[in-house]
């Protein structure tokens, strides 16, 4: 169902001839049929942000959006004024097709290769052909969640049935996934009656504890975009706190699915740091461990190599995360392989057959700061995908 | 020749049964026969620093060393008090064999798997068997440079004939190589007449512009050690500035050789950033680009993917390195593939057959800050080595 699970949304998708993969669906439209058109968004903090990000940031500034155009196969990033003009043209075209008052009622998202302009005629023709097929069916929702994929191996969606209202969403992303968002395009919809301010607060909080805490490969994209659209079609005005919790649930589910489909990965790794002096200290430690190529290779080889955990932990400066190396414990899948900075239980006791691997680090500072970051292992297939990927 | 190229040094090596590779030489001794015993060292800044690092830091604090014990096959890291006691015992044993006044005349270096204690009997017996074979021959120098290797594919040495004195050195290191030193053990010798203070200044400066500017995999070791020993046997007192330049030449050569032997690598990548507001700003940008797994995979695939250069550049915060993305140019092997933040020359014009790849980034801020960092590409073989490596 994805984005059409809540009432008041329709979607369409098509193979517009943008992707290098012949016949692959590469264009999706999402339209908010109201009665509300409230919206919120968070975007990449990469300084080389793509033209569609530049456009969408402006479009959403007033807290309102009626439609979204998403394409895979080309990122329209690092394309200068010409790329920005293309993004504007996309928005104008959907606004004109749908009779929206202005082009800034439309956000645009692009994902794919950096440095190429869009094949604009293909894209605009695709939009015109797809527009009449807009629908609110489960099939339409599913097809759109497929159309936005690049190196992803399967669609990633979420549906939450809340108290009288619904939340739905779709996301793409499997490489260039790093601390501040990811190479990801995410559209979340709801039929709740909510204000743009409330949505923005909920989305920022949700993103912070989900998309900003996954790291597939330490690389940050130029195109990351997360949009939240509200139609108000349920007529239900939720408790703001409860609404924020449900948005956080949706972003957590989608982020977890991104890690589950990380490029070439064979293990999903949860790095949890506890006993830190603060959440920030715990987060710095968790990020350092999750970013270790050596550890990620070891996990690929089913090796619970705690030496690579602590050597990564050891690069976090003392003023960022105070702790005594002699107090640190490391559990891998429940086995305490490092105890007080020294060898603990034999590594042979650790079972590594499951896809999910849990690395639990206790800094034992006496405080309770904690944080969790998810990452993937680093595999032959990751190298293959990224040495050969050009589209 | 390596460490015995200068006068006043002898070395010996042996297969002591420390490495998991049966019959591999895994132990080397280096002895300074004087008349001077001046020494300087720089060490890992990893907070989980290994027992031999803890020992050697104290031993060298007085600016004097007469001998070094180096083993491969076991890092003696994260081994607590027992590991420290082992390091002390190694030093005592060489001091006793050689008749040095005190055990702190000896530094010890270990490299290999983290979290295991040394097979101490093997190591001490090996030392006793090797000691009588100490020699100053080219063969002895070569054999020691082989004995210290782990996943390295070949020995890495340097010989510099300076004005009346000599500098020699050997280094190991090919994985866990990151900004602040590397999983490296390096011993540099000289027969110049120099003071510990002068040596320390020269070594710190040399390391900063060599070992601290290479990054194979972004991982920092627990065991990094660079030692500089002076015998004074040439009788020549060099000009301090000229001496420092020659030490910098030696460290630059050894660091470059480490990158050339980076685990599984097929390309050595030089990332040079110019036109920054300061050297620090340039260095932050160069490090960010050199750390990008996606870029390193692209280079492995002979793809001059400048989109992955600028998307890595874009994560450096503006207060760290002010620049305008629209002013940035990127040349790969002399072809300007990105011009003013937009596509430049076609990527097909870039030749990628050579092992060495040059990425030149001009931030065009109007200032002249610049910095260079070397790294390797990320290959299938890197994953293979680090998913399967356990010794």
UniProtKB/TrEMBL annotation, chains A, B:
Gene3D superfamilies: ArgJ beta chain, C-terminal domain, L-amino peptidase D-ALA esterase/amidase. It comes from Pseudoscardovia suis. PANTHER family: ARGININE BIOSYNTHESIS BIFUNCTIONAL PROTEIN ARGJ, ARGININE BIOSYNTHESIS BIFUNCTIONAL PROTEIN ARGJ, MITOCHONDRIAL. The active site is at 183 (nucleophile). Keywords: Acyltransferase, Amino-acid biosynthesis, Arginine biosynthesis, Autocatalytic cleavage, Cytoplasm, Multifunctional enzyme, Transferase. Belongs to the ArgJ family. It is found in: Cytoplasm. It holds the Pfam family ArgJ. The record marks 182-183 as: Cleavage. One of its GO terms (cellular component) is cytoplasm. This is Arginine biosynthesis bifunctional protein ArgJ. Substrate binds at residues 150, 172, 183, 263, 386, 391. SUPFAM superfamilies: DmpA/ArgJ-like. The gene is argJ. Its EC number is 2.3.1.35, 2.3.1.1. The record marks 111-112 as: Involved in the stabilization of negative charge on the oxyanion by the formation of the oxyanion hole. One of its GO terms (molecular function) is L-glutamate N-acetyltransferase activity, acting on acetyl-L-ornithine as donor. The keyword Amino-acid biosynthesis applies. Heterotetramer of two alpha and two beta chains. The lineage of its organism: Bacteria, Bacillati, Actinomycetota, Actinomycetes, Bifidobacteriales.
